[in-house]
TrEMBL record:
InterPro entries: Metalloenz_LuxS/M16, Pept_M16_N, Peptidase_M16, Peptidase_M16_C. It comes from the Bacteria. Residues 176-353 form the Peptidase M16 C-terminal domain. Signal peptide: none annotated. GO terms for biological process: proteolysis. The keyword Transmembrane helix does not apply. Belongs to the peptidase M16 family. Keywords: Hydrolase, Metalloprotease, Protease, Zinc. GO terms for molecular function: metal ion binding; metallopeptidase activity. Pfam families: Peptidase_M16, Peptidase_M16_C. This is Insulinase family protein. Gene3D superfamilies: Metalloenzyme, LuxS/M16 peptidase-like (3.30.830.10).
Length: 428
């Protein structure tokens, strides 16, 4: 099912890759900027720096006062935000097309001149913001630290994916202004980024605007490559059992998976979808509808490019049900899939779900801009948005079973189980 979204590319003299997809259907333009820096690029002692900059980038630059980045764009009718992940950091805004120049000027000012505004006061303020975010999203939220626990179990301590993007609060406390400036100079330059513009603008005008606002910014020295995280499937079981004030007993399992961009990862992702995606998934049918031992089940693959990905399966026990029953049922279905495979109908169902989700993502200018930046930065091919679903559709039942048999096994997993204190004695 080939898609035909138009893609035009240019690389500025300073190395900034600019991708434009003109769409004159609605008077909206999306600006999306991906930097090739995430938590896997952070060396020991500097964890959390990429995420810290997600906050600092909104706190002013040479020509923009603190807080004005948000206020100027919101006054122009924009929605905007940023996110940090293992493999990248991205900044994005979607606004009426007349605001394109404003959006590009603001992005360029902080790419080129952020450090003019990063002083001790600013650093201390945003460090406290990050700490509060960790308290709210990780420490004081039910199950909030599950992924922190899982990645520590799933990867060696020195692996690039062994820590979450929030990082270590001790590392942030120890960070000096000089440390922060050095990290920015190392990664936040035009030749380490992709700028995507999608929407109500001509290709020529979009490229001209990109050159006007970004073309004068100097390239940075070639950033160091992220450490190689290539590692095979898990071959042992490691558990973390937590007694906590949680609403229900819950178990989450994590499996290492193949690297993103490979047919093997597509196959492994579809295997997890057969188990856990939607109401028709095997786990939902058995655990929730038939046996009623779980309130809900979920799971899926999390694609990563640093040599390995991972996937999860989660079950929340029904009230009064021993969590061990949920764990046992999850593992039985994992083994059944690996040993017996999937049917053609099951595969067609999850492939159709993937196609629907992909088309929904591409249906908006903002969603399309994000995926173009994603595939341009991490795979060097923005046109992959037009071919991606064909790669998923090409996966066979044989490939799904082979991926499951190698990567998604009861004997090769890590897991964290949360039990309410009154249920702790039920632990197997």
């Amino acid at each position: 099912m080939p898609l035909t979204y138009p893609i035009a590319e240019q690389t500025l003299d300073n190395g900034l890759r600019v991708v434009v997809s003109s769409d004159r259907a609605v008077p909206i333009v999306a600006v999306n900027l991906w930097y090739n820096v995430g938590s896997r690029h952070e060396p020991e002692g500097l964890t959390g720096f990429a995420h810290l900059f997600e906050h600092l980038m909104f706190q002013g630059s040479r020509n923009v006062a603190s807080g004005q980045h948000f206020s100027l764009l919101e006054n122009a009718g924009a929605s905007l935000n940023a996110s940090t992940f293992f493999d990248r950091t991205n900044y994005f805004e979607s606004l009426p097309s007349g605001g394109l120049d404003l959006a590009l000027w603001l992005e360029a000012d902080r790419m080129g001149y952020l450090l003019d505004a990063v002083n001790q006061e600013n650093l201390d303020n945003q460090r406290d913001v990050v700490k509060e975010e960790k308290r709210q999203s990780y420490d004081n939220r039910p199950y909030g630290d599950s992924y922190e626990r899982l990645v520590r179990l799933a990867f060696p301590a020195d692996h690039p994916y062994a820590h979450m993007t929030i990082g270590s609060m001790a590392d942030l406390d120890a960070a000096s202004v000089e440390d922060v400036h050095a990290f920015f100079r190392k990664y936040y330059g035009p030749n380490n980024a992709v700028l995507t513009i999608v929407g109500d603008v001509s290709v020529e005008d979009a490229f001209d605007a990109a050159k006007r606002y970004f073309g004068h910014l100097p390239a940075i020295p070639q950033p160091p490559a992220a450490p190689d995280g290539t590692i095979g499937p898990l071959t042992e079981v490691h558990r973390d059992d937590v007694v906590s004030d949680v609403p229900s007993d819950l178990v989450t399992m994590m499996f290492r998976l193949p690297m993103d961009g490979t047919p093997e990862l597509d196959a492994a992702g579809l295997a997890l979808d057969v188990l856990a995606a939607g109401q028709s998934g095997r786990l939902n049918r058995r655990l929730v509808r038939d046996e009623q031992i779980a309130q809900s089940v979920s799971g899926g693959a999390l694609p990563l490019i640093g040599g390995v990905s991972f996937g999860t399966l989660t079950g929340i026990a029904s009230d009064g049900v021993d969590l061990q029953k949920v764990e046992d049922a999850l593992l039985e279905e994992v083994e059944k899939l690996a040993e017996e495979g999937v049917t053609e109908d099951e595969l067609a169902t999850v492939q159709a779900q993937a196609e629907r989700d992909w088309l929904e993502q591409l249906s908006t200018c903002a969603g399309r801009a994000d995926e173009i930046s994603h595939h341009a930065l991490l795979f060097g091919d923005p046109n992959r948005i037009n071919t991606r679903i064909d790669q998923v559709r090409a996966v066979t039942v044989e490939q799904v079973q082979a991926a499951a048999a190698q990567w998604i096994r009861a004997a090769g997993r890590v897991q964290v189980a949360y039990r309410r204190s009154e249920n702790a004695g039920e632990q197997a």
